[in-house]
């Protein structure tokens, strides 16, 4: 059994409130409203064990999933939410060895999920025009350990897009219709495509442009995620719900007319 050591990243989970803290085991105390916890005290413990704060609250030591890490990313952009990313990954049909183009790194949430899917033999090439967002995404992605499978480019994809033979493309920028022609130049025939847009107007303009650029099987949809409070004898939907994240557009490329 592997025990925890100095430098390990753990998720401390408080089940009563579904609250969690993503922390590195180091020589300091964690201060929370549930009381203090000496992080050094986690050394030698095992995944799944519980620890108690100085106020007597029990926290479970969990191995952080990629979703846990993404939801704790430093975020200054809207991210692709896991509920949307799940079906996007299926539609993109990527796996170990795939070569993926991403336009709009943002906070790096989707980049991390794409990289996890294509590792260890594939690659994600991702473009971010803003230097501050590029640096933020790099810091976020470094913590996931997925940077070896990602090429990050700090440039305007509309001018800088290069390469060829991409299996899949993921676009998350405000004016995706302006980049579709360039994406079509570097996607493999029959390649997969996905994009997210916050508004219907953007989704409409994009699908129209996809048709013009030789894409087929274009679908636009929205996914609703409704949590259920499942408790014996009183199961009911949660009173809170995220009303809207994004419209998702998926398509297949056919061939490039020269
Ligand atoms: C909504 S965010 C992307 C969020 C990202 N999908 C995630 O899950 O974290 C859109 C990003 O696209 C970037 N962007 C917009 N136009 C761009 C372009 N022409 N080339 C590269 N990046 C661009 C913006 O600066 C912004 O960071």
UniProtKB/TrEMBL annotation:
Question: Which Gene Ontology terms cover its molecular function?
Answer: tRNA (adenine(58)-N1)-methyltransferase activity
| Superkingdom, taxonomy of origin | Archaea
Residues in tRNA (adenine(58)-N(1))-methyltransferase catalytic subunit TRM61 C-terminal domain copies? 59-232
Task: Quote the Gene3D superfamilies the UniProt record gives.
Answer: 3.10.330.20, Vaccinia Virus protein VP39 (3.40.50.150)
Per the record, its GO cellular-component terms are: tRNA (m1A) methyltransferase complex
Q: Cross-referenced Pfam families, in alphabetical order?
A: GCD14 (PF08704)
Q: Where does S-adenosyl-L-methionine bind?
A: 128, 156, 172
Which keywords does UniProt give here? Answer: Methyltransferase, S-adenosyl-L-methionine, Transferase, tRNA processing
Q: Which Gene Ontology terms describe the biological processes this protein takes part in?
A: tRNA methylation
Matching InterPro entries, A to Z? SAM-dependent_MTases_sf, TRM61_C, tRNA_MeTrfase_Gcd14
Query: This chain belongs to which protein, by name?
Result: tRNA methyltransferase
In its UniProt entry, the species of origin is given as Thermoproteota archaeon
**Organism phylogeny:** Archaea, Thermoproteota
